[in-house]
Amino acid sequence: MLDTLSSEDFAPLLGQCCRFRAAPWPELELQVQSIRQKPLSQVPGREGSERTPFVVELVATAATELVDAVGQLQLPAAGELPARTLDNVWISRTGAMGRDRRYCYFQLPFN
Q1: Rounded CA gap, 88 and 105, in Å?
Q2: Res 47: pLDDT
Q3: Using CA atoms, how far apart are residues 107 and 49, in angstroms rounded to an integer?
Q4: Which residues pair with 55 in a beta bridge?
Q5: pLDDT of residue 46
Q6: Closest by CA position to 17, among listed 83, 55, 57, 61
Q7: Which H or E element spans position 9?
Q8: Tens digits of residue pLDDT in 23-82
């Protein structure tokens, strides 16, 4: 299922919260902060035949020691999209880089 997702699938979720589960970590609530297209990450020669790579940027709503993990991401219903669960999702923590350092930031890359 992950290979069929595009950045447009996440657009209705901007500002919404989803839940990430990965043992042994406690469940983590993440807010969808932004979606960035990454066209330079495209495999050369495959432009136009595959989706454009993109990154979903997330912010944790509570403090966490999680750095990166593979787990299950529960997406809420939004617009005409039903609630969905994505399995084997990898999220990775990113630096605050000019953002509020009190929050924990993550990225969900799709190549």
Answers
A1: 19
A2: 66
A3: 25
A4: 36, 109
A5: 64
A6: 61
A7: helix 7-10
A8: 999 999 999 999 998 866 666 766 666 778 899 999 999 999 999 999 999 999 998 889
- At 75, the amino acid letter reads L
The tokens for 11 are 């657009």
Average pLDDT on 81-90 reads 95
Enter the tokens of residue 84.
Answer: 């969905």
Give the CA distances from residue 28 to residues 51, 64, 66, 82, in Å, rounded to whole numbers and listed in that order: 28, 8, 9, 21
Helix H, strand E, coil C: the string for 55-95 is EEEEEECCCCCCCEEEEEEEECCECCECCEEEEEEEEEEEC
pTM comes to 0.88
